[in-house]
Amino acid sequence: MHDPLISAPVGVMAVLVAVVSFWFWLEKKTRWRLFDFLPPLIFIYATPVLLSNTGLIPFESGAYDFLRQYGLPIFICLMLIKVDVLGAVRIMGKGVFVMLLGTIGVVLGGFVAFALGQAITTPESFPLHFPLPEDSWKAFGTLSGSWIGGTGNMTAAHAALDGDGGHMTMAAAADQLVYLIWLPLLLGSRAFAEKFNRWMRVPADRLALMDEAAAAHDDTEHAPTMIQLLYLALVALGFTWISLELSDVLPPVVVGGATVISASTWLILLVTTLALAASATPVRRLPGAHPIAMAIIYVYVARIGATMDLSNASLETMGAFVAMAYVWIAIHGVFILAGAWLFRVDVHTLAIASAANIGGAASAPIVAAHHRESLVPASILMAMIGYALGNYLAILTGRLGQLLVT
C-alpha cells in the first residue's frame, strides 16, 4: 500500500477531531431523522475506517498510541468522578436494583451467547458463519461494556481486552442493530403501564414518591472557572500517571494458561477504581468534567475506526455475532422483567433501568422523557452507575468467554 496522504501525528489527530466535529455539526444543523436511527457515533467510527482504507490516514500512528495510552484513562477519570450512586437511589429506590439485575443479565447473557456461538456449526455456504472465532470473546466483552454502561465502557473494555479493529466493528454493528429493535420496545412499553403495574403489584404511591424525590434533586452545574479546570486536569493527569506506573509493575494474572489480567487490563481497573473513590469526595462537585470526557471519547472512537483494516473483515462472521447479540439481549430482558416482578416496580422504572444499561447516558434520558419527564435527571444518574460498573464487568464478561475456549 502507498504511504498515506497524511502521516504526521498532529495531522492525523486533526483529521480525527474534524470527523467528530463534522458529524455532530451535521446532526445539529440538519436535524435529519436519519440520526434518530443511526446516531453520529456510527459515522464517527465508520468515516475513519474509509479514510484509512483509502490511504488518506495511516492504520498506525503516534496519535493513536497517545489516545490509547493517555486519552482513554483521562476520559475514564473525568467521567467516573461524577458518579452519584446515592442520588440515583434516593429517586429511583428499588429501580436501581432492577438495573443491577439487568446488568447481571448482560454478563451472563454474554457468556451464554458466546458459548452458543461456539457450539453451533454451519456449512460454508450458509450466510452466517458458525462457530464464531475463538477470540470473539473480545468482541463480546467490548459489546458488554456498551450494554452495561456506554460508549466509554465499550472503548475501555476493547482496550483492556487487547481487541483489534475487527472486534470493535462487530460490537459496534451489533450494538446499533439491536438498539434499533430494543429502543422502540422500551418506548412502546408505556402503553401497557396500567396493566403492567397491576401485574407487578406496584405500590399505589410509588410514582408520587419518585416525582417528589426527583423534584428535590439539584443537578445544576455552572460553567467551570479556570482554577476548577486546573483542578480537573490535576486529578485526571495524576490518576492516569499513578495508574500507568502501577500497571507497568503489577504482574499479569494467568488462569489456566490464559492471561486474564494484562497490563492494559490493570490500567483500566486502576484508573476506574481511583476515579470512583474520588467521586465520594468534593471532587465530584467540580463542573465541566462530563463535556470534556465525552469529547475525548468520541475522538477515541474515531481512532479505533482508523485502525480497522477492511481486508480482514468477514460479513458472515459479523452476521453470526449479531444473531448471538439478539439472543443476548433477550436474556437481559428476562432479567429486567424478573427484577421488576421481584422489586414491584412500575413499567417506567423498568424501561429506564434497561435503557440505562443498553443505551447508557445517551438513551436513558430519551426513554425517561417519553415515560415520565420528571425522571430524566434520575435516568442520567442510573446511567452513571452503569458507567461505574461497566469497566469491571465488561472485562469479566470477556474473560469468562476466554476461559471457555482456553
Q: What is the overall pLDDT average?
A: 88
Report the end-to-end length measured between terminal Cα atoms: 36 Å
The stretches of 5 or more residues where confidence is low (pLDDT under 50) are none
Secondary-structure element pattern, one letter each: HHHHHHHHHHHHEEHHHHHH
Percent range of helical residues: over 70%
Largest pleated sheet = 2 strands, antiparallel
Strand content: under 5%
Multimeric state: single chain
Tell me the strand order in the biggest sheet. 1-2
Q: What characteristic shape results from the CA principal axes?
A: globular
- Strand tally: 2
Structural class: mainly alpha
- Number of H/I helices: 18
Computed CA radius of gyration, to the nearest angstrom: 21 Å
Describe the structure.
By secondary structure, this protein is mostly helical. The protein has a domain at 82-214 and 235-290 and 311-405. 72% of the residues lie in helices and 2% in strands. The chain is built from 18 helices and two strands. A two-stranded antiparallel ribbon has the order 1-2. Strand 1 (253-255) and strand 2 (258-261) form a beta hairpin. The two termini are 36 Å apart.
